[in-house]
Amino acid sequence: MNIIKTAMLIAVMTALFMGVGLLIGGRGGMLIALVIAVAMNFFAYWNADKMVLRMHHAHEVDERTAPDYVRLVRGLAENAGLPMPKVYLIENDQPNAFATGRNPQNAAVAATTGLLRQLTPEEVAGVMAHELAHVENRDTLIMTITATLAGAISMLGNFAFFFGGNRDNNNPLGIIGVLVAVIVAPFAAMIVQMAVSRTREYAADRRGAEICGEPLWLASALGKIAKAAGRTVNVDAERAPATAHMFIINPLNGQRMDNLFSTHPDTGNRIAALQNMAAQTGGTSFGGGADGGQGGIGFRAPHSPAPKTRGPWGTNKNSSHGKRKGPWG
């Protein structure tokens, strides 16, 4: 079913891309746009994940450079029955994360240093489990291709603004066609992005809670990330807004235009759904953890000095979340 949905989405985005080409240059422009769209779809399938990671200056880490972070992801991947994804770190103070890749065998997860520093290990587990849920549901391919084509449509709209007014370009609608290409096409691409993200976030929240074993870990994380994201500017995300829907929480600082224009469901609704899920399970863990025979693992954010107090990557025995066994032990 996800393969069919992916094909339908690519068809919609390609048709939108061709429509912009028609408005800019008539039939010739539409054919050129078709060729470009086919080439972009092929390129996006194989390379869009690498592009998104480069856009956000993510660098790959392993058990030597970030042992606790990688070990956490490995335990969650085992819980989900998924191949171990590549693990990336983004040097950014805004707590956030996303997943990318064309399939579970070629997936990658990325978290910001802000996420690792500001959240407890349990909350980080909830976030990374959410991202692995996207991998399991094969949302990553759809979201990555959508980000690539949405960005291209926006660029094509800008191109129409500067060059679409030429009378010799066979534009069937003249200046009206140019205005449609400049305004309506990018807006339509944004609507597609919102539809893709909103319908998948709730499913990823639920499955992520099952993977990590505790819905309240993710609920707590969502509240903290949403609050911090509104205070911290993510420069790379602001430069590439077409990738905003890939993050667990909207990374754009102007995200207050919620509801109709948000790429994500309302955070309060997501938290309420997770709390309801926890209540239905009777407040007990149900996902299980990859038990390494230890009572817990102390975590520390990679490349950051040791905190003076027990922080998000140091064992905190007084943590209210620490009563249940998580994916680290």
From TrEMBL:
Biased composition (Basic residues): 320-329
Topology term for the membrane: Multi-pass membrane protein
Cofactor: Zn(2+)
Cofactor note: Binds 1 zinc ion per subunit.
Region (Disordered): 282-329
Subcellular location: Cell membrane
GO biological process: proteolysis
Name the record gives this protein: Protease HtpX homolog
Organism lineage string: Bacteria, Pseudomonadati, Pseudomonadota, Alphaproteobacteria, Hyphomicrobiales
